[in-house]
Amino acid sequence: MPNWCNNTVTLEHTDPAMIERAKTAFAAGTFLNEFIPCPQALIDTVSGFGPEQEKLEAQQAANRERYGYSTWYEHNVSKWGTKWDVGGEDGSVQDIEGGVIITFDSAWSPPIAAYALLQEQGFEILAMYYEPGMCFAGRWYNGDDDYYEYGGMTADEIEDTLPPELDEAFGISQAVSEWEQEQAEENEE
Fold it and tell me: If DSSP codes are grouped into helix, strand and coil, which group holds residue 125?
């Protein structure tokens, strides 16, 4: 089971149809695949035994030759930045003028590779992400990734290091402060 990365993304586009397309795909849980599709031949790669394994290896070799990737996993991690698609019941959409704000969790990391490809399709993107298990957070804006690792920092150090907008969006220093208080209380017992 992966660690989950929390994401808040503002998408804007000059073409309202692209925003509607994004909303529809996000609601279906196919947001990334809608704009950066994974070929079906890569999706159909599953493990096998004996002759099935030989067939699988032949299909993966053909996939690598045709698509540059053997499996859906390689494609998704490379093109999206995360292994699974996002949206569906695990996210939310808020309409804003000229776009939407979407929130979702992604597996292990934010889909930064997808943001770059979405930007090429005319989207303006402001993304903030937070992965509490691995202690990193960041802000991605139209190609610039402002990334922070905060493992081992105190709540005060986090508050001094992270941009206030990022810290407040996810309550990072507050969560660490609460954890520090719990630890202090346990040590007093």
Answer: strand
The pTM is what?
Answer: 0.86
Q: For residue 127, is it within any domain?
A: no
Quote the CA–CA distance of 92 and 148 in Å, as a whole number: 25
Q: How far apart are CA 156 and CA 182, in angstroms?
A: 16
In a domain, 184, yes or no: no
Residue 2 inside a domain? The answer is no
Which of 90, 119, 93, 132 is closest to 9 using CA atoms? Answer: 93
Q: Which two tokens stand for residue 71?
A: 């499996």
Distance of CA 52 to the CA centre of its chain: 33
CB within 8 Å of 81: residues ≥ 6 apart: 106, 109, 110, 111, 112, 113, 114, 115
Residue 75 in any domain: the answer is yes
Tokens 């000229």: give the residue. Answer: 98
Top-confidence range, 63-67, 71-75, 116-120: 116-120
More confident residue, 59 or 150: 150
Range of the domain at 66: 40-79
Instruction: Give percent above pLDDT 90 in the chain.
Output: 74
